[in-house]
User: Which sequence fits this backbone?
């Protein structure tokens, strides 16, 4: 009887560990800070440097910020979002992307799977 109760618990522990490893492996960056939870990733790009992040297996690059417009390259697709509109979202490369904050030093994005 003990063996029957232990096996499902062990399987659940292994599944949770595999999910955690998969989520942490899904993001990397250069010139950016990436933080993910189960549904959303927040990407903070440093301005003035070549900034790029891999989010959920998709390349996201900060191209420019000019006249309150943020230009991004998402998996080879160039998109432009207004810097001051946190409600506007654009879909590219299988991701939904929105601008959360733009300052003189950084650009903060919210990214979710489409």
Assistant:
């Amino acid at each position: 009887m003990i063996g029957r109760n232990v096996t499902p618990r062990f399987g659940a522990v292994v599944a949770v560990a595999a999910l955690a490893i998969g989520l942490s492996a899904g993001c990397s960056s250069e010139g950016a800070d990436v933080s993910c939870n189960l549904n959303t990733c927040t990407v903070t790009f440093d301005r003035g440097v070549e900034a790029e992040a891999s989010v959920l297996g998709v390349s996201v690059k900060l191209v420019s910020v000019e006249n309150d417009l943020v230009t991004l390259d998402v998996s080879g697709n160039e998109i432009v979002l207004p810097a001051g509109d946190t409600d506007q979202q654009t879909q590219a490369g299988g991701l939904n992307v929105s601008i959360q904050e733009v300052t003189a030093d950084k650009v903060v994005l919210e990214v979710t799977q489409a």
Q: What stands out?
A: The first helix runs from residue 2 to 25. The two ends are 44 Å apart (CA to CA). The chain is about 20% helix and 55% strand.
